[in-house]
Specification:
By secondary structure, the protein is α/β, with parallel strands linked by helices. The protein folds into two domains: 167 residues, Periplasmic binding protein-like II (D-Maltodextrin-Binding Protein, domain 2); 134 residues, D-Maltodextrin-Binding Protein, domain 2 (3-Layer(aba) Sandwich), CATH 3.40.190. It is 28% helix and 16% strand. It contains eleven helices and 14 strands. Strands 1, 2, 3, 6, 12, 13 and 14 form a seven-stranded mixed sheet that branches. A five-stranded mixed sheet has the order 9-8-10-7-11, with helices on one face. Helix 6 crosses helix 7. It is globular, with a radius of gyration of 21 Å. The protein starts with 48 loop residues before the first strand and ends with a helix.
Length: 392
Amino acid sequence: MMRTSRGSRIAAAALTVGSLAVLAGCGTSSGGGAAPSEQADELGDYEGQVSILAWPGYVEDGSNDPDVDWVSGFEDKTGCQVTSKSYGTSDEAVNLMKTGDYDVVAASGDATLRLIAADDVAPVNTGLIPSYEGVYDFLKEKEWNSVDGQSYGVPHGYGANLLLYNTDVVTPAPTSWDVVFDGASAYSGKITAYDSPIYIADAAVYLMAHQPDLGIENPYALDEDQFQAAVDLLKEQRQHVGEYWSDYLKEIQAFETGDSVAGTTWQVIQNSLAAEGASTDAVLPEEGATGWSDTWMIASAAKNPNCAYAWLDWIASPEVNAQATAYFGEAPSSDAACDYRDDCEAYHAGDADYASQIWYWTTPIAECVDGRTDVECVDYARWTEAWSEIKG
């Protein structure tokens, strides 16, 4: 995600961060941590601390809201004292992981493959994480969290980037992304779009359905011609965009004031607008949508890998995962978590058919993630350059 905030209280102040340390059964590097690309065979004694890097709202200890705390229980159970730092963009997370200051990171799909390629995170032995068994199968061993069948983390939650629209202005109710692309001129100046290079994939999803001759099979695997088509579509859209957003609070305000009438959104944003009585609705368009499934990953040189494994098991356990994903505003990672939530239906939790329509954020790399070997795909660095050109 790609985003600075996503949940109903994610504007809360970030927590502070701290130390690091290592796992029995693993080789060690000169820094004392687990060797890069080496998977743990067994766990050793807890080190007494763990340092976590995550999106705001993912590591809550009651300091932002005394009623929101899933860290204290972990500390009481394991003796691993948590220090954490929140970040605002995936690019920031990738850069912070290069410092070696963190044992664990919650990474979105537009960061995970970059972290894996740089050996900043290690393969994860899911057999050492009991809670992993209950995670939805449609989130396991996917191209954004695994390589060649090797898992690099534990899924946290997931959601789709939906189409939000003003029901009084945008009529009839849209069923296609056409309203923000080829049909955007009808609402010129009041279209909104997510502010990130990964939004290029949203254009690619639209082109998959409306320009099949391009041959796009995966919106994150674009050859030069496919990529240019997506960029051209977004440059056309630019003249109709009133605002690009990354802060969910700003999108809420724009729809409340009428400054925006159609654009990408998250389910939690529509929930907030509906609670305020706004004339809005959100839909998963017929073309499908991009989305996210964040992954908890362990640093390849983690100084506290035993506590890191314990955290991955804790955050994926049903009651804790329910708390964390509900606070953030996304579907949980397991059916068992829905026993502790009353809103799973609104987030389509566990609905495999719904989930199959989501193209989860995946880092674009030169080696095409759709399996093609006869062409080179455009990598994320080029996506970043193109995004600056699109916005002007």
